[in-house]
Amino acid sequence: MNRRDFIHTSCVACAASIGVLSLLQSCTTNKYVSNIKIEQNKLSVKRTEFTVVKKGKAIQQKFIILKPENSPFPIALYQLPNDEFKALYLQCSHLGCELNAFETTLVCPCHGAEFNTNGEVTQGPAIIPIKTFVTSSDAENVYIQLA
Question: Do residue 70 and residue 141 come from a single domain?
Answer without folding.
Answer: yes
